[in-house]
């Protein structure tokens, strides 16, 4: 399972995060984006080394990079002075990888941080790259492109659901289930808005196909996440972690995250070329 998880994390570190940063603010975040490979490459290597001092040191380098990125959130807030739903989603996206960075350092050091087992820490790393960074970022982009209460709900519920899931780690499985419910509702709202409002006829067929795949995948992957959370809380049969990594994890990484950032990059390029 963890070979697949590591591959998913590498995709997040080296491809999805830097591509997402271009969508947030290509000018002001350009210095961070240019430095990002210097942080992400050591982090990616750390995943494949045995736990110990070398892996931990490389993970620390990546964690520093995530803190540099997280520092952009208060800077953006001071500049924009906005707590509009789309902005809250973007601020969450900038801060979320720092949770993944901390979890990676602890897991590579073999330290059960806050009492969490090493497998849970290992799974926290992809969760806060994709549910934390990508999902919040896309929710913010969708909110900016689609008007109405559902768009604002999506932009607020995705960050709230992600943070509630994190809080649930410290409380119990029922609190984590509550977070999963909120996050699922938000992601399904993102899927609906993407399919209905964003995937317009003004886009080329390739962009429309990427948006369609990202929306359709979310319906299935979040249903899997919800079934796992319900099973954990109610102690009833549910998919195992290996199955979840191969379905929910891989689907979100390739079908949702990668397709979404590619589609939104094409949308952004189209708008810039039209100016």
- How far the N terminus sits from the C terminus, by CA atoms, comes to 47 Å
Number of discrete domains: 1
How much of the sequence lies in strands comes to under 5%
User: In total, how many beta strands?
Assistant: 0
Average pLDDT confidence is 93
Order of helices and strands: HHHHHHHHHHH
State the helix count. 11
Radius of gyration: 18 Å
User: Percent helix among the residues?
Assistant: over 70%
pLDDT below 50 for ≥5 consecutive residues: which ranges?
none
The main sheet comes to:
none
- Specify the overall morphology: globular
Structure class: mainly alpha
Keywords: Membrane, Transmembrane, Transmembrane helix
InterPro entries: YndJ-like
Pfam families: YndJ (PF14158)
Protein name: YndJ-like protein
Topology (SSEs and partners):
Blueprint: H1 2-24, H2 30-48, H3 53-70, H4 72-80, H5 85-95, H6 97-109, H7 118-145, H8 149-170, H9 173-198, H10 205-234, H11 241-274
Helix pairs in contact: 1-2, 1-7, 1-11, 2-3, 3-6, 4-5, 5-7, 5-8, 6-7, 7-8, 7-9, 7-11, 8-9, 9-10, 10-11
InterPro entries: YndJ-like (IPR025450)
Protein name: YndJ-like protein
Keywords: Membrane, Transmembrane, Transmembrane helix
């Amino acid at each position: 399972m963890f070979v697949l998880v590591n591959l998913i994390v590498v995709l997040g570190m080296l491809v999805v995060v830097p591509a997402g940063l271009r969508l947030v603010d290509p000018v002001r975040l350009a210095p961070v984006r240019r430095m990002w490979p210097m942080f992400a490459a050591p982090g990616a290597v750390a995943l494949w080394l045995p736990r110990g001092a070398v892996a931990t040191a490389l993970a620390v380098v990546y964690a520093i990079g995530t803190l540099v990125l997280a520092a952009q959130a208060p800077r953006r807030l001071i500049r924009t002075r906005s707590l509009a739903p789309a902005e809250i989603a973007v601020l969450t996206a900038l801060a979320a990888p720092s949770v993944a960075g901390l979890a990676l350092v602890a897991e590579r050091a073999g330290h059960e941080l806050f009492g969490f087992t090493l497998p849970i820490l290992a799974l926290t790393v992809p969760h806060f790259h994709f549910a934390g960074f990508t999902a919040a970022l896309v929710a913010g982009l969708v909110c900016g492109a689609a008007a109405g209460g559902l768009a604002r709900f999506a932009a607020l519920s995705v960050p709230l659901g992600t943070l509630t899931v994190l809080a649930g780690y410290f409380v119990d499985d029922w609190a984590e289930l509550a977070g999963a419910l909120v996050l699922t509702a938000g992601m399904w709202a993102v899927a609906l808005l993407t399919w209905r409002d964003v995937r317009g006829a003004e886009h080329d067929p390739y962009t429309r196909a990427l948006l369609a795949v990202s929306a359709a995948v979310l319906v299935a992957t979040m249903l899997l996440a919800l079934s796992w959370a319900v099973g954990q809380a109610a102690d009833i049969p549910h998919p195992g972690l290996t199955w979840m990594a191969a379905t929910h994890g891989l689907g979100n990484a390739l079908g949702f995250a990668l397709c979404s950032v590619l589609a939104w990059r094409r949308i952004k390029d189209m708008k810039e070329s039209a100016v």
